[in-house]
Structures
1.
Amino acid sequence: MANLRSLIRDIPDYPKPGILYRDITPLLADADALHEAVDQMAAPFLDAGVDVVAAAEARGFIFGTPLAMRLGAGFVPIRKPGKLPFDLHSFAYQLEYGTDELQIHVDGIQPGQRVLVVDDLLATGGTVEACLRLLEKCDADVVGCSFLLHLEAFGGEARLEPYHVHSVLKYSGDDGEAELSIQNREPGPSI
Ligand SMILES: O=P(O)(O)OC[C@H]1O[C@H](OP(=O)(O)OP(=O)(O)O)[C@H](O)[C@@H]1O
Ligand SMILES: Nc1ncnc2[nH]cnc12
């Protein structure tokens, strides 16, 4: 079995000083590890009757679509403003400096459909909390949230209550590094 943790590369001070960036690209490039990651993200939800996987761009898309296929579900994209062409639900949320916004098509989810939210990483929880608020506007039946990485030091799981949160790899933050979420950055170039 692939050692997933060994394929997460730590990059100190990226994208700015003080941030410890958890780089998933070595794992993505390894065929066995990618397969294993998708299997482990899907495992608790195999019998959950998931109709649709929803995920936010960009890294959420990497795992959202293969998870949907693994679960026999459809895929619905959640995107930044200006990217979806039809009628929209929008949710603006606070970053440390400024705001961000996510959107979903109003007909992306039918009321009562069972939805799994997927992302590569949970830090402050701001991104997936925004996804959950959008799914609530669609009257979705959210079965849970699945992540590859959970940076526990940011307390993001509390923002996702009462939903079921599953993560494959947990980072406790006790490695002594001053870990910061890149969500807590000043607005700047997209990374
Ligand atoms: O729990 P949070 O504090 O919200 O942080 C996690 C989010 O941060 C990253 O996305 P980012 O906004 O950097 O965009 P990207 O997927 O386009 O790289 C990551 O892919 C998660 O979506
Ligand atoms: N420390 C971090 N590494 C990689 N992606 C992130 N998204 C939010 N915080 C992050």
Note: Residues 124 and 155 are 6 Å apart (CA to CA).
2.
Amino acid sequence: MAGTAAVAPTIVARAPKALLHDHLDGGLRPSTIVELAEAAGYTGLPTTDAVALGQWFRDSADSGSLERYLETFSHTVAVMQTREQLARVARECALDLAADGVVYAESRFAPEQHLAGGLTLEEVVDAVLTGFREGEQEAAAAGTPIRMRTLLTAMRHAARSREIAELAVRYRDEGVGGFDIAGAEAGFPPTRHLDAFEYLRRENAHFTIHAGEGFGLPSIWEAIQWCGADRLGHGVRIVDDIATGDDGIPALGRLAAYVRDMRIPLEMCPSSNIQTGAARSVAEHPITMLKRLRFRVTVNTDNRLMSGTSMSREMQLLVDEAGWTIDDLRWATINAMKSAFLPFDERLTIIEHVVKPGYAALGAHG
Ligand SMILES: O=c1[nH]cnc2c1ncn2[C@H]1C[C@H](O)[C@@H](CO)O1
Ligand SMILES: [Zn+2]
């Protein structure tokens, strides 16, 4: 019966997908890193063999710690310092996602990390937006249309969040959907960046916050109740506020209830969470319990390079290891589209004209 049989990889590949949490500097093709490093004279790579390099990223990111996981980004950021490098990486990102069946994606990066080659913050953003536009055009011509948006990230250990928030507002009509903070979570609470969030709220702008990944409930609570985040990056530790009683019935604490009641989207990234130690396995990942409890769950890649993953792979893992059905994949995709930092009418158009017909053709039910 449709919706209950295990979903075959060919079906997952064809399913329309929506991606809210993907890092531009965490999704480079290994071959591109090797080429860009050689052309730029960057000699810091652990190997110049593309296959071995891909493996190196996956192994190094498999560290059990968010801090060590983040160290691997020094190599990708090193080859994203010129206009051409940034545009190429963005173009390839759009093409790779489109080839994987992603129809809508928000890709994020931290402009402040791309100034070493002398570019200004504006030039960095322009270069990335140019690359996304090229990728969109080529993907459409290849018969795999994708709509790309970018989120501008500020690094939580640094002190440029207000400036980056202003940049996000300045570019909001050019393809920037919103703002985010990322980087090590423990020791860097989101309230350090309160002025940036207050500014964004006054500007009617959108933002998400990485919270509840490398640190627990206090981080989620601050992100929502102090900072006013529209969405949570990961948010996986919200399960710490859900107790299972003797009767087996889950009881939600006040914060978990708030997140569910307010339909706050959770940008969940199973493979990344396993690598950083935020979850033990896909089978035990809280995403499936949260889906059952009907939180606003979405499925995401986080860093395709570091996790050796794709949207299809994350979905297939949930199918194979956590029993997700095609109806579940459809539900998560519609959740993501409902939560996108895109005008409401455009969200509806993608849901009604792309996502629903795409899943209907695969036998899924609403
Ligand atoms: O999962 C993550 N948690 C916190 N920070 C992250 C994660 N993935 C990537 N980052 C950081 C490293 C990148 O250089 C930065 C901007 O994309 O965001
Ligand atoms: Zn992330």
Note: The CA atoms of residues 68 and 141 lie 40 Å apart.
3.
Amino acid sequence: MKIYFAGSIRGGREDVGVYRKIIDYLNIDNKVLTEHIGDYKLSVEGQGQLDNDYIRNRDVDWLNKSDLVVAETSNPSLGVGYELAYAEKIKKPVLILHNKNKSQLSAMIEGSKYFRNINYYSDVTEAISILKSKLK
Ligand SMILES: O=c1[nH]c(=O)n([C@H]2C[C@H](O)[C@@H](COP(=O)(O)O)O2)cc1CO
């Protein structure tokens, strides 16, 4: 399965370690299209070597091609919010992971009837177990 993993970049890179572990787990049996989100070297500036319009169009293309969107939403990010709204518009299946000790998920996501696969976790081990049970 082709998976679009969404996680914060310009919204803040505090959770890069969590993204890396989730991506590594997903890549065991799937192909994660957005590997760069788990790259420790990628800073809050994002993929500065690429134009913003290139990034946006490439990512929309990947969203269209993906079979599933997995979004880690604990660190609020405009880009992740945009990707979720786009996934909702094209009716792409979405699985959300949110660390309940970090922040409150936006009402725009919680309040949408489209997002019914919202999973709260407290540490990355729990996040991986959720993926294990939901993706089998
Ligand atoms: O350099 C980038 N590359 C990239 O693929 N994105 C996409 C993928 C992420 O899921 C999301 C992060 O958005 P933001 O940068 O607003 O936190 O946007 C975002 C940026 C920078 O905004």
Note: The first helix runs from residue 16 to 29.
4.
Amino acid sequence: MKFTKMHGLGNSYVYVNMFNENLPEKQLSETAVRLADKNKGIGSDGMILIYPSQTAAVKMRVFNNDGSEAKNCGNGLRCVAKYSYEHGLVTTTSFTIETLGGNVEATVSVDHENCVQSVTVNMGQPRLLAKEIPMKNEHSEAMIVNEVIPVYHQDIRVTAVSMGNPHAVQFIDSIEKAPVKEIGPLIEKHDRFPEWVNVEWVEVVSPKEIHFRVWERGSGITQACGTGACAAVVAGVLNGHLEKESEVTVHLLGGDLQITWKDDGDVWMKGPAEYICSGDVCL
Ligand SMILES: N[C@H](CCC[C@H](N)C(=O)O)C(=O)O
């Protein structure tokens, strides 16, 4: 099977062009685990499949390195946009990508050699009601902003945001002190989150700049999380640290994203997408 490995700020996936390949549905989860394994496979944070779509130019499906399927992936969207444009799956620089979390609009920026250097994605509206995250709550129509949840012997304050996939965002004084590997897995599988959750820590530098770390649902610590960065900016506005319409620089381990939550409700993400390698893999 032919594959292409790409990354967005170090958040790497093995991409399979399902216009040309045919992985059986029942083998997708185990294939993701196998391809993501750094010893027995190619090594990545997961697997992303690019399909034809009935409602958009292309369709993206995302599998974490534990084989679970995610409904969205911001870094993946930018790489899918780059791949689709450079491999002729689309013929325009702006096009729609279907995800299980909803359709989004991507625009690629190309250089003089028609290579994609960066991608801007309208990620759509964040979902903020407890039932939309999903998160168990006494009032399912309530928003979860800076709410205490008991984790081990600590009271952790989280703001819950869905970008098609669920995120629990915390604010911390120093990002260097974020207990990502200690607390991340405890919140990821917390019983308040019936579909589990991506876990983020944010240090606010200014109304236009934050530091960010993530423990991803189904993948653990990654270098970057695009949907998580969007969720972090939304949570920052909800908690009064950031403002709508302001382009926020999000410093992730793997590099920076520019995120804006606009007055019309849509969240915009701009950042790089890069090839690593391509080839054939034996399954
Ligand atoms: N790394 C991805 C997020 C994958 C989300 C996945 N971990 C889940 O929601 O289960 C991103 O750039 O948005």
Note: The chain has two domains: 2-124+271-280, 130-265.
